[in-house]
Specification:
Its main location: cytoplasm. There is one protein chain. The chain has 399 residues and is α/β, with parallel strands linked by helices. 29% of the residues lie in helices and 15% in strands. The longest helix is centred in the C-terminal third of the chain and has 19 residues. It is globular and about 65 Å long. Bound molecules: NADPH dihydro-nicotinamide-adenine-dinucleotide phosphate. The site of NADPH dihydro-nicotinamide-adenine-dinucleotide phosphate has 33 residues, from helix 5, helix 8 and helix 14.
Length: 399
């Protein structure tokens, strides 16, 4: 069996010789009772860099000892890239949302042996799910592995946007001390109305984490949360996204990208938001219209925009979100902290062990199975594809 694994580049200075922390805190499970990844074994040290090419998700020993071939590359964009060459005879492809190998219908059609597409993380929108269904390719992701990592990032981004941290940090780095410059856009979040589009694993955790800031919490989702949770968090449910964005000072976006959510935040919806609101989007870049966000920041309809997701990825060097005013963007990092890497690497190993041992992969990791959306996929995604336009990723030039 040939396994093709597309991972992000190593650090420019080479793999770290040591890490800030000697060990990771021990976690016992996820809040809803789901267990952490449970592979039979792992061949890596938790807390090490695993998501880059030399990290290899800790898979080489395991795969080679079992007689399989592992190809790891970061060369994933453009017609002649290494990944396009190897996909033609790969049985399994592993890719990550942070540095996605866009598995378009064309690539799926060229992959005659492909049986399995694994997402080392959460969010399989970089796979043309419709083409995967049509070609009987199963798709799995490591549900929950980094949901709480993202929720932490959301809290950080809400606070840093509203308090205008980026501007204040820049003033210090530039050697300045003009307090008035530093605070002219700085507010407290206390008392604000904060709403999430989707209250799944990330959205709900972000609401829970924001609760101690004494804010008013809102959500919009296709399914309503249990009444006990609404009571616990004093949540306001909205039947429509329009109703929620009209009253919120901060909107955080936490739904998957699929045909229903693509381009959801266009000029029309942004104009229905409370004037001067903030958006934090750690879900997927394509849920927000690129130009509409940039022009709303310019006009003041939005006071700030932060997140870590772009379209495509890597974002072209001239992507307008790199230079628009009052943004707090990071590259796609929230779900790939060293802590999260340990969980998604273990989850990928668990999925491979099941596949190789002819055992069922967990239902919660399942997105597409036997030609249909299934498991978590049937609950959270819709049929179709959201990969169009991904070829623009080849415009990115390494700095
Ligand atoms: P979950 O599956 O737990 O939650 C997704 C939620 O989105 C579900 O509650 C689902 O609703 C809801 N939803 C789906 N479609 C719609 C819609 N059209 N309108 C409103 N709500 C909708 O996933 P997670 O919370 O773990 O992750 C969510 C997304 O976050 C991922 O799909 C991924 O895109 C992104 N993500 C980003 C990461 C990063 O590093 N930045 C890392 C991890 C995830 P219901 O089930 O009720 O239909």
């Amino acid at each position: 069996m040939k396994v093709l694994c597309i991972l992000y580049d190593d650090p420019k200075g080479g793999m770290p010789k040591n890490y800030p922390l000697a060990e990771l805190p021990k976690l016992t499970g996820y809040p809803d009772g789901q267990t952490l990844p449970t592979p039979e074994n792992i061949d890596f040290n938790p807390g090490e860099l695993l998501g880059c090419v030399s990290g290899e998700l800790g898979l080489r020993k395991f795969l080679e000892e079992n007689g399989h071939e592992l190809v790891v590359t970061s060369d994933k964009d453009g017609d002649n890239c290494e990944a396009n060459h190897h996909i033609k005879d790969a049985d399994v492809v592993i890719s990550q949302p942070f540095f996605p190998f866009y598995l378009t219908r064309e690539k799926i059609d060229s992959a005659k042996n492909l049986k399995l597409a694994i997402t080392a993380g959460i969010g399989s929108d970089h796979v043309d799910l419709q083409a995967a269904m049509d070609n009987n390719i199963d798709v799995f992701e490591v549900t929950y592995c980094n949901s709480r990592s993202v929720a932490e990032h959301i809290v950080m981004m809400i606070l840093s946007l509203v308090r205008d941290y980026h501007n204040q940090h820049r003033i210090v780095n530039e050697g300045g001390w003009n307090i008035a410059d530093a605070v002219q856009r700085s507010y407290d979040v206390e008392g604000m109305h904060i709403g999430t589009v989707a209250a799944g694993r990330i959205g709900l955790d972000a609401l829970r984490k924001m609760k101690p800031f004494d804010v008013h919490l809102h959500y919009f989702d296709r399914h309503r949360l249990p009444e006990s949770i609404e009571k616990e968090l004093n949540l306001t449910f909205h039947e429509t996204v329009e109703s929620m964005v009209a009253v919120c000072d901060v909107v955080t976006i936490n739904c998957p990208l699929h045909p229903e959510t693509e381009n959801l935040f266009d000029t029309e919806l942004i104009n229905k938001m409370k004037k001067g609101a903030y958006i934090v989007n750690t879900a997927r870049g394509k849920i927000c219209n690129r130009e509409a966000i940039a022009s709303a920041l310019k006009s003041g309809q939005l006071s700030g925009y932060a997140g870590d997701v772009w379209f495509p990825q890597p974002a072209p060097n001239d992507h307008i979100w790199r230079t628009m005013p009052n943004h707090g963007m990071t590259p796609h990092t929230s779900g790939t902290s060293l802590s999260a890497q340990t969980r998604y690497a273990a989850g990928v190993r668990e999925i491979l062990e099941c596949f190789m041992g002819n055992k069922e992969v967990r239902n919660e990791y399942t997105i597409v199975k036997d030609g249909k959306l299934a498991g978590t996929g049937a609950h959270s995604y819709s049929e179709g594809s959201a990969t169009s336009g991904s070829e623009e990723a080849q415009k990115y030039k390494k700095m």
